[in-house]
Design brief:
Strand content: 15-25%
CATH class of the largest domain: Alpha Beta
Helix content: 25-40%
Radius of gyration: 18 Å
Structural class: alpha/beta
Number of domains: 2
Bound molecules: zinc ion
CATH topology of the largest domain: Rossmann fold
Number of strands: 11
Shape: elongated
Order of helices and strands: EHEEEEHEHEHEEEEHH
Distance between the termini: 53 Å
Number of helices: 6
CATH architecture of the largest domain: 3-Layer(aba) Sandwich
Length: about 210
């Protein structure tokens, strides 16, 4: 049977471009591709957009609590050679389990692309915990997400009005609010720019002074 694969990177790591390239390669050989994204991702509405300006309409624009196993959705993907999921961190636990079921029961490979951590540096949510638990293959996408210092980025730091913060709602889509921006950072820079400026920094005590 097919596999459920999770490919992750920090933001700006080329995930959407990877989806578009994969879709193109399959379609070039006349295979059907189905792309899924959550409606929580309001950027680009029912299309996925890569940073180099490429875009493509998705086949399933999934509602928050919508099942992928309904006859309506099954009709869309049952003849597909591959299913690609963008921003998988926005799917819930049940939807991840359904993707696993599709791979192993219907025998369609499912490749999910997304972030493993949120702007606070914690696991993104229940959907990502679930995919780490049941994915057949988990892999990092190269090292294309680069920190301000040039090292590989691990964290997705949030800036509000140009200031780094680790407070607020977990899901705030950049572009939905002009004051929100995400910056991929390496661990050292995340500690320096986000954690040391945070309320939590007090716990680090004299070490903070040392790092400064
Ligand atoms: Zn850095």
């Amino acid at each position: 049977m097919a596999n459920l694969i999770f490919k992750y990177s920090a933001m700006n790591g080329g995930k959407t471009l990877n989806i578009l390239q994969t879709a193109y390669s399959y379609e070039e050989n006349n295979f059907k591709v189905v792309i899924i994204k959550s409606r929580k991702d309001t950027k680009g509405k029912n299309s996925i957009l890569s940073r180099n300006g490429m875009s493509r309409e998705v086949d399933i624009f999934l509602k928050d609590n919508e099942s992928l196993l309904t006859p309506k959705n099954y009709k869309i993907y049952y003849t597909a050679k591959i299913i690609l999921v963008d921003e998988v961190e926005l799917l819930n636990e049940a939807q991840i389990k359904e993707l696993w079921t599709i791979a192993h029961l219907i025998n369609i490979p499912v490749i999910c692309y997304g972030l493993k951590s949120n702007f606070k540096g914690d696991i993104f949510g229940a959907g990502i915990s679930q995919i780490f638990a049941i994915a057949d293959i988990v892999e990092e996408i190269g090292s294309s997400s680069v920190c301000l210092c040039g090292k590989k980025a691990i964290f997705n730091a949030r800036k509000i009005n140009d200031k780094f913060t680790d407070e607020g709602e977990i899901v705030v889509i950049d572009g939905s609010n002009k004051s929100v921006l995400y910056v991929p950072l390496c661990s050292d820079c995340y500690l320096k720019y986000v954690k040391i400026g945070s309320k939590e920094a007090k716990k680090l005590g004299y070490l903070v002074e040392k790092i400064k």
